[in-house]
Amino acid sequence: MSSSSELSGGETTAPSGFRARVLTMADNSRLKGLTSLGPIVTLLTVFYAIPVALLIVYSVFVDDPFVTAITFEHFARFLDLSAVISLQIGDLPYVRLLARSLGIAVVVTVLSLIIAYPITYYLGQHAPERWQMLLVLLVIIPFWTSYLIRTYAWIPILSRNGFINGALGALGLPTVPLLNTYWGSIIGLVYVFVPFVILPLYASMRSLDASLIEAARDLGASRSAVFREVVFPLTLPGALAGAVFVFIKCAAAYVTPALLGGTSGRMFAQVIETQFGTAFNWNFGAALSVILVAVVLGSLWIAMRLGIDVGKSRGLGGGGL
Amino acid sequence: MSSDLHVDGVTKHFGDVRAVDDVSFTVEEGTFVTLLGPSGCGKTTTLRMIAGYETPTTGRVTLGDRDITDEKPYQRPTSMVFQSYALFPHKTVGENVGFGLKMRDVPSEERDRRVAEILELVELPGTEDRAIDELSGGQQQRIALARSLVIEPEVLLLDEPLGALDLKLRKNMQVELKDLQEELGITFVYVTHDQEEALTMSDEIVILNDGRIEQRGTPAEIYESPRTRFVAEFIGDTNLLDGTYVATDSGAYLECGSVEFPVEPNPAAESGATLSVSIRPEKVSLEESAARNGGSTETDITLDGVVDDVIYQGNVAKIHVRIGDSELISERHVVNSTDLPTPGSECRVRWTKEHADVLVE
After folding, report:
1. Does B151 touch chain A (CB under 8 A)?
2. How far is A303 from chain B (nearest CA, A)?
3. Is residue A67 part of a domain?
4. Which among A218, A222, A235, A310 is the top mutation candidate for probing chain B, defined by the most B β-carbons within 10 Å of its own β-carbon?
5. What are the GO cellular component annotations (chain B) (predicted)?
6. What is the mean pLDDT of each run of 10 residues along chain A (321 residues)?
């Protein structure tokens, strides 16, 4: 734009004294900015950095309170395919369980996006203005009840004689095992995490200029083409913000798989809990935690790199995330 | 086959609000018609019904013999240029302009060729790979135009497309748009609230107020012969003289306080009604009182008055003249500023009867 070139032109012609003064002012405000960050830095250090540091320390110490020695045996145990978690259906190496957890997180994230997109598209673009707040409230209301209680509420819905199977039976359809299965975990997690995708995606949908959709329709785009060409790429930042959150939280999910997943829906955080709570092997538990964090961060980093490459090739730039 | 656009008895309700009220007009093929009116007058709603974004509550929209009232926007041979341009921010200029062709499954080589052609037409050749946010407002405007034109619509609909541009650019674009329309021979339906823009570009103007058509006609007809008070006030500046309208067999006149003068009869006005007469300031000539050369005749009205104020505006001057209880403004081109009358001096104003338009509400 022309205004930016005018601005930069103005800067170069400004007297140097003026410029110097501007710089010191900027330095001062930067300093002020740092000091004002003090409380939050302290807070994060105490409540976040120190526990994580302790976890890392635990993970590399031997499992003997009387010996102080650094070891990587816990990490080796994680990688050892013959070291297994015993489940009723068979034994599972730790690596496989982590892979399954990440798989569940991916499935839940994708399902949440698939569910959230039409809901937010309607909310942000079609719902009458006066209903929008109410509808958004409906999305938020479940948060007023404890996560644990809401998860318990799914047990009678998913159980063998529960609501879903009762309905299937009434329709003369075969019943499906849901509670204490892989899909029990998935359904429970999707239920919990869909709102976390809906909210940022709704914000993106709201800010999407409706005339862009009209213009696309006007130029001959079908409904699916409007979504593919306009709505999806322009709301992707909101979707990604939600998806990253859901993926991180899901990969470390504990309560939902514990209550709804049974053995086939078991996830990695449950094994970590066992090490801390039942096996009293805090060092191995800490190592598993560190591994989980590292793997989640690593997979996000890879996904972001891929996303940026895709974005670049489609002219989206690396913006957003 | 002619493909004139007919808007026939169209009414649109939004809940209890009647946004458009029994509007009918015809746009001849290849002409530039402007829907003009203040905000909330129903002009944009009318345009959106032509485009297919709104469905009329009653009435039909036809193009030639084809009833398009219930067709979807993309089924109609119309295309819309939005006030906000509605360019896709995540696509390049070329992808934006080629969007409609891509949706029509035009092969990519032909698409590229036609995009290049149309970019040439809007004087932005070779900008295919530029990002939208690298362009200035005026350039974005051209791209929006190109994106609509490339699909070769029969009717191009423009919703205040110049509203976001600064004055100078807007003036340039007005001329360019008109030239482009004449060159392409496409029907343009243009919505604006800017009367000057409407006068500059249009073959015909439809003036809307409160959901209804106030008047339609060529720019000259609208400006020179306003029929309602709203039109006279909305288009340009004018003198309004209030009085009692008297129509007799031998002619009509207006009783205006202590003076009365003949006016062109208006069949829509009732004799004895209180109404206004509009006289454009530049139609009122001013003479020094000394140069008395006869009083009013049947077609030439002269009234004596006193110069109240002289407002000098460079090329023109506005001279306020008090006549009895009324004040009249005479506008003239200034050649020598020393020729202007001085306030307080006696003078005589003169106009011809055909320039005094009897207005109805």
Report:
1. yes
2. 21
3. no
4. A218
5. ATP-binding cassette (ABC) transporter complex
6. 39 43 54 74 87 91 82 89 76 88 95 94 87 89 90 92 90 90 93 93 92 93 92 91 92 92 89 90 92 92 78 47 37
